[in-house]
Automatic annotation (TrEMBL):
Cross-referenced InterPro entries: FixH, FixH_proteobacterial
One protein family per Pfam: FixH
Organism: Bradyrhizobium denitrificans
Taxonomic path: Bacteria, Pseudomonadati, Pseudomonadota, Alphaproteobacteria, Hyphomicrobiales
Name this protein carries in UniProt: FixH family protein
Amino acid sequence: MASRSDRSKPLTGRMVLAMLLGFFGTVIGVNVYMMKMAISTLPGTDVDSAYTASLGYEKEIAAARDQEARRWQVEAHIERGASGAAVVQVNARDASGNPLSGVKFQGRLERPADKRADQEVELAEIGIGIYRGTAEAIAPGQWDLVLEGDSSGRRLFLSKNRVLLN
């Protein structure tokens, strides 16, 4: 009776080399693929340069204090239709309750998990203190609604609110 080791091929240096190259080649190939997918799908940064953003931090604090001192009452309503279009309406009033006119409002719908899906919303003044705009092809889910109000090239209002669109 022949033993099992007599019938099998002997383990040679070439076989060990082929097994090691196959194993590590597979591991390295999977790692390269996963890195490529991670980098291309979610960059993970809010700003390109943290240093540059930090230089403007004091200006942002001063702008927030000025905005708070104005005590504007800005209310936004967003509604997503069955076609996927989202209508954004903003009602803006000053501290005494008078409608704000002549301020240029802009909106932006930002996807928290994927910045590539962000969409600008041009808000036009349709009445005194009432601004409205439409964004096409908005997917359901969580979005951040960013509103900016400018006058004479100077930002007077900024807000960012999380909304859930169905």
